[in-house]
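Case study 2.
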Amino acid sequence: MDAMALYEEACAHEHALSGFYNRNVRVEVGARPVLVRIPGPGAEPMDLTLWPEPEVLEAIRPYVTRAPRLLHAAVDPVFQIHEFIEGRRVDEVAQDGKPLPDLVLDGVEQFFAEVLQVPATALGPVPPGWPDDGDTRGFARLLLDFAQGLRDRADASVDALYRALGVPEDPCGLLIERADAELVQRPFRLLHGDIHRKNMILSDRAGLVVLDWELALWGDPVYDLADHLHKTAYTASDRARIIAGWERVAPVDCRAGASAGLTFYLGCEEIKSALVDTVRWGRRIAAAGAGRERRVLAEELHAKLSAASPHWDAGLPPEAAEIEDAVLRLLG
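Prediction:
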């Protein structure tokens, strides 16, 4: 396999699946395609990260079967080559809010069973200042400090938009106060940190495979469940089944105080979503043409702000039409 030739072919490819941080290009290698993964230009960091993704994929290989294999990683230029997983993305099987088949729901349970067994010794060291094992309150504070940093670093136009949409300067204060009462110690585990319908492939050969490990963390395992539930938009029955499945496979000490922890971390995710998506959806609204597309985006942003607003006690956000007007005035 000529890695540089594959990289150059991927760079020249006009068609790619692009997330917020990477371009993913299918390249044919004889009868066996591979996925070339290239960082997107100027991607704005909106998520906490810990390790380079290739290090994570190498570390989990003996323990997690439901992840793509890393075939090559380069640092100059930066790119990766992964095995290509043939199958259907889960959002193509059923979109947000729609029920999912047993193969997906059972696969998610089995995925959690594998990830929760990855030992700390398999992974790279955490940086100085990272919360000690079991310090769930310290981990929560790390998440909330990162979210606060998103608010603090806003430039003048984004800051004005936050203010117009009712996002306070201290959006995390109430949750920080709640952490001591709602979180108990739990041993830390590997967290994927970004499991949602577009990051899961249903493969005839491998079953459910979870992609995109660049946001993997070491922390409270209940957070990974909360992040997944927040991003996957399950039906009520599917959501209950996923929670029950997680409880079946999680070690006993990881389940201590899990219900209160889940509620707490869902609040964290709602706040972070409002902070991040005010920027991302605001830019999408500003770029959209007048009409239905713009209004739908404004309604989606209204829903995100409405979900977060109880956690910062600042009242309800403006209606979708007012959001649209504010975005066009401040970002247009």
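The chain is about 50% helix and 15% strand.
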